[in-house]
Amino acid sequence: MSGNVLFDAPGPRTIARHRVYTVLTLLALAGIIGFFAWRLQVTGQLEYEKWEVFLTPSYVEVILQGLLDTLQMAFGAIVLAIVFGLVFGIGKVSEHAWLRWPSWVVVEFFRAVPVLMLMIFSFYLFAIGNGPLSPMWCVIIALTCYNGAVLAEVFRAGINAVPRGQVEAAYALGMRKTQVMVQIQLPQAVKIMLPALISQCIVALKDTSLGAYILAPGLTYVYDQISQEFKNQVPAALVIASIYIVVNLLLTALATWAQKRYVGEKAAPLEVAATGFDDGRGTL
Description:
Radius of gyration: 25 Å
Helix content: over 70%
Order of helices and strands: HHHHHHHHHHHH
Distance between the termini: 39 Å
Largest sheet: none
CATH architecture: Orthogonal Bundle
Strand content: under 5%
Number of strands: 0
CATH class: Mainly Alpha
CATH superfamily: MetI-like
């Protein structure tokens, strides 16, 4: 009923026009793909010698190791960035100025500095010479600082998006400020900002490619090695980019499933406290 009110059903002319648009779009995409394939053929990028490396077991192992290194850097950075963002996001909404203003300075600083500059700074500070850390950890530190600063703003916005009435109701029930934050605001904030968290995880995964500039392992570093040795920059770029795309699609699918499975079905803590029911497991 609501769909009929908000959206008029298209008539025969509109349906025919949309079909024409669809056909033209498909033809345009087919033309672009055909032109791209023709250019690859003309420039010799489809020759077997340029693709043989991706069928050689030893080089496949190198690519898989690069993928593993990329996932390790991304996973470490994402976990640490969530902790970073949670701490400084809560700090930015604190009522205490001595905590709120330092949190604001840290977040705004790391949001403003480019990720590559953070990697270079971390490399010269911790890894160059006989430094205590490897270039991989320099990438993780840089990604943690940048993505953590972005997630701090996401957490702050998510906390502020929780209706004020629910917070006031929690205080009326006798809950303390920490309890309100942990049991009322944060669970709902996570549900609100989960799409932004997913997007930032994908950003962190892609930004690991910048680590090749400081000689950190990963898919981009493997690409540099293969393309320089076999002079197959375009085929190597297509293969490595395809791996990034597949991993990002899998990450998005996993996060979407987690959102529906673990977040979408949970009742709000305040709603449980107000009604006295606990999902059929007894009353509070």
